[in-house]
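User: Before I run my own analysis I want an independent prediction to cross-check against. Here's the chain; please return only the structure tokens and, at the end, one sentence I can use as a sanity check.
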Amino acid sequence: MSTLIIISILPILLLYLGLYKVQKALLPVTIIGLLAALGSAVAQWNNSAQPIYHGMMLFDNFSIAFSAITIISTILILLLSKGYFERISQHIAEYYAIILFSLAGIIVMVSFYNLTMLFIGIEIMSVSLYILAGIKKSDFASNEAALKYFLMGAFSTGFLLFGITLIYGASGSFNLEVIRDWVLAHPHPGDITPMFYTGILLIIVGLCFKVGAAPFHFWTPDVYEGSPTLITAFMSTVVKTAGFAAFLRLFSACFAPLSDFWVPVLLIITIVTLFIGNITALYQQSFKRMLAFSSISHAGYLLFAIVALGASSANSVFIYASAYSIASIIAFGALILVHQQSSSDNFDSFNGLAKKNPFLALVLTISMLSLAGIPLTAGFIGKFFMFSGALMKYQVWLVILAVVNAVISVFYYFRVIIAMYFRDAENEALIVPFYYKIVLGFSALVIILIGIYPALISNLI
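Assistant: Structure tokens:
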């Protein structure tokens, strides 16, 4: 609980620092505050967690693990923000504050034990992101991204809220434990009311909108492309991780006994998500837009853990989300640097990067290999756990389709590697700031360490 309190108070403090023009203190104070929140979360590990606030929230190991990875990802992203926000606006305190308000909603999302808290967490996160997507007020693409995100987000929230209402109408409670007991008290499918089944379907639609799963993904490419790149990195990593953590927590806690009803629906969504994400990414000329469609395909892989719901699902989502987040932070960090030099995010902008800056080309190569799921990287370990969980449920054909999609993804991930190493450079040397080297080097090292020694995180939850 202290983690949420720290993250809620910190943005208010940052707004006061901005008010008194203490601009240089914003980033250090933010990082110190997030480290304090991270330490507070880790200190509660393996404590006998009990629901608090009349069963509204539960800070167990599941919540702590996902809170930790979202906080760490936010720290890495904000370390890349030095000088970035200043190029957009003179008033940068608001940027840090809104990101942290969004993170507070994310902490609520991964710790909810009551459907009302799930809704509140999603809305705190979403409203902050609507603002962040359009925060470059003079940029038409940013304004368009914010409008699309707001309209689609409000639309999906209606589905989610209606689904929660129907679940309450059938079970008589918003509390996850009470809902689970109600489901267990009605062991036969005919005992469950159509209202409850409809509620589950509407919640699936609402959550699939939030995590960018097809066919509810159509907002993702335009919003990711139009938003400031650092904000896109935050949405693609921290927000997606929180969305799947909430998705998994709800379905494992309440709806597992009814898997025969909703698993076929999620199977179809998973397959469609994989193929739409990977095939569409093949045709992109923009590296940033490719990452957007790539994030859709990774949503498909993350859905494996919910489709093959079991004791290892939480650990599988945690490993995959961690691997994906770290690799994506490297990719977006490299994109920021390349875009600053070439004013373009096309694949051609990466031509000859290995000659212009060997370090940046190396870490970006490690990132692409991990996202493609190549062995000895964290991405391979994440896919291995996802595929293993599906095979345990005897869904061999689903794993075969996923492997086919993984092969497809190699083509567009290797496209940037080919551009960096086998195309001629068109610009002068690219300079990587020291703090970028720290973040990108640390992230690449973590990818390799997890790939070689997965036991580092494979049994945390």
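Sanity check: The CA atoms of residues 208 and 216 lie 6 Å apart.
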